[in-house]
Amino acid sequence: GLRKKEVNVLCLGLDNSGKTTIINQLKPTNHSNHLGPFSEDWKHVSQTQAQEIVPTIGFNIEKFKSSSLSFTVFDMSGQSRYRNLWEHYYKESHAIIFVIDSGDKLRMVVAKEELDTLLNHEDIRSKRIPVLFFANKIDLRDAMSSVKVSQMLCLENIKDKPWHICASNAIKGEGLQEGLDWLQGNVS
Ligand code: GTP
Ligand code: MG
Asked: What is the fold, at CATH topology level, of the domain defined by 5-186?
């Protein structure tokens, strides 16, 4: 058949926001949330899903397939000492997922700083790539709404890229499919 279109997705956001948890939810064993039919090749990957998620060191690469697209997701570490790795992948990226811990009010300004640095970077600034935001951990009692997160991050100022924000609970997998459907529809 036809070769699937290759899409590189960069998953960014502060440490502890839930990036790896989100990506783990997309793995094949999780039938309620996967993106589509996966080839046999990826079955081994699912074994890691049951393991406890630990802070990412550097980054991890995961591959997913939908009916029409072949995704390579770069799950970057959000720890400050590794954030300088992010920019090395900007040139090759076709989409960005930016994850926010909706319960982490104290670090919302840090998340905004990192987002602004990303959006002003020369390798991102001129590209019309879609940016999907997950306002994650909405299950936390003091979590901000996605509207509030959107206001805190001044997302309405993003005029030159399609963007979308979804509230999510990555542990339960809630909100993820909606976001990924949007992303799939907006990668060119
Ligand atoms: P780094 O790899 O350090 O950048 O972190 P990360 O963004 O990959 O975060 P990770 O997926 O490791 O999740 C951090 C912690 O948040 C883990 O203990 C997760 O179980 C927890 N977590 C992730 N998503 C949610 C959520 O939606 N709700 C709640 N309550 N906890 C979550
Ligand atoms: Mg991680």
From this structure: Rossmann fold (3.40.50)
24 lines ligand 1 (CB under 6 A): no
Whole-complex ipTM: 0.99
Ligand 1 and 60: CB distance under 6 A = no
Longest Cα–Cα distance in the chain = 50
**pLDDT tens-digit series, residues 156-168:** 999 999 999 999 9
Distance 14 CA to ligand 2 centre (A): 9
How many whole angstroms from 7 Cα to the centroid of ligand 1?
24
Number of helices (H), then strands (E), in the chain: 5, 6
Sign of CA dihedral 43, 49, 50, 55: positive
- Domain segments of the chain as ranges: 5-186
